[in-house]
Write a structure and sequence with these properties.
Blueprint lengths: L7 E5 L4 H5 L2 H10 L4 E6 L2 H4 L10 E4 L9 H14 L3 E4 L5 H7 L6 E4 L10 H7 L19 H13 L7 E5 L11 H14 L3 E4 L6 H10 L5 E2 L6 H10 L2 E5 L2 H8 L3 E5 L5 H4 L7 E3 L21 H4 L3 H12 L7
Parallel strand pairs: 1-2, 1-4, 2-3, 4-5, 6-7, 6-9, 7-8, 9-10, 10-11
Helix pairs in contact: 7-10, 8-9, 8-14, 10-11
């Protein structure tokens, strides 16, 4: 029996940066199954919509800002009418606990609806879990790599930044001290020690990245260093950050959005994991390194707050030397030109 063809597909996921990038393998799988279909995605902000601005597989990223421009019933109704007029024939809802998302999904009824169910009693990566949602369409697990297309303007921005700061031809290592939840952060003192070690032993230029909220963390790192790392926290949008990370040799980071941005543009990462479970949200692809403390009994707790007697022991037991060794392993050399 011939499978049903879908021509107009809506994906619903008003989530964070990492959540959305981890959907890109599912988007690619839908395109491979239905190459003529228009694929649109409903996201939670204009900032995250930019992640799909240059993605050739995505027809449109639609913003559903439930706490801002779509907070009122009238604005939500206008968005519902917009979706209704689009006449989607397949909806894939990755936000099934969100009642407003279901209200918006109803704009496409009657249509085929697939609903994501988060794995709770087994260890499976989010990327695989997302693709499992498509199994009723006959889509099987395939290539799981993430994708981000920064676009020409962001690529020029990154090229100009590297040129202006004398980074071309150098070993450039980005560090990301921030995370949405403090339990997932390595300390600024250890990041500072790492920055000086990488500059001294590998002759690397260190670049501190992150959002505007991470600026105090970056400043504290700079204050503790003698190697004068470059600070880019709060100075880039997501596409510019992707283009800069694409030019870096690697990124040292906790479990947070920039980790997934780096993997999506092909940059290797040293990922520092404590409370979060790398089997669920670790870096996707080959060549990355995941570091975890070996002797912390509560790891991974998957909690957003630490209840250990030794606060954030799981992160504190990841040493600077462990990270430097992983960096050397990825680089495969003693560093670039100073």
């Amino acid at each position: 029996m011939r499978s049903v063809e879908f021509n107009n597909i809506l994906i619903i996921k008003p989530g964070a940066i990492g959540d959305l990038l981890q959907l890109t393998p599912a988007i690619r799988a839908l395109h491979e199954k239905y190459p003529l279909a228009r694929i649109s995605i409903l996201v939670g902000s204009a900032a995250t919509a930019a992640l799909f601005q240059h993605n050739p597989l995505v027809h449109e990223a639609i913003v559903f800002d439930k706490r801002g421009s779509h907070h009122s019933l009238s604005s939500l109704a206008r968005l519902w009418l917009r979706l209704c007029r689009a006449r989607y024939d397949l909806v894939v809802n990755f936000q099934r606990s969100n009642l407003k998302a279901w209200f918006l999904a109803s704009a496409a009824f009657p249509c085929r609806v697939l609903v994501y169910r988060k794995a709770t009693r087994r260890s499976v990566h989010a990327v695989i879990n997302h693709r499992e949602t498509l199994a009723p369409l006959g889509i099987l697990p395939g290539v799981l790599c993430l994708e981000l297309y920064p676009g020409q303007e962001a690529e020029r921005y990154a090229a100009d930044f590297f040129s202006a700061n004398g980074l071309d031809g150098k070993t450039v290592i980005a560090i990301n001290p921030g995370a949405s939840h403090p339990v997932n952060r390595w300390s600024t003192a250890t990041f500072a020690a790492l920055a000086d070690l990488l500059a001294d032993r590998l002759k690397a230029r260190v670049l501190i990245i992150g959002g505007a909220d991470d600026e105090p963390l970056a400043q504290d790192i700079v204050n503790r260093t003698s190697s004068n790392p470059l600070v880019m926290t709060g100075k880039t949008d997501l596409l510019q950050l992707g283009a800069i990370l694409k030019r870096c040799n690697l990124l040292v980071t906790g479990d947070t959005g920039p980790m997934h941005i780096a993997t999506a543009v092909g940059t290797k990462v040293v990922a520092l994991f404590g409370a979060a479970d790398p089997l669920r949200t670790g870096p996707v692809g080959a060549g990355h390194r995941i570091l975890q403390a070996a002797d912390v009994s509560c790891l991974p707790c998957r909690s957003r707050t630490c209840t250990n007697d030794v606060q954030r022991e799981c992160m504190e037991k990841i040493t600077v030397e462990m990270v430097e060794s992983a960096v050397r392993e990825i680089l495969g050399e003693k560093g670039g030109e100073g």
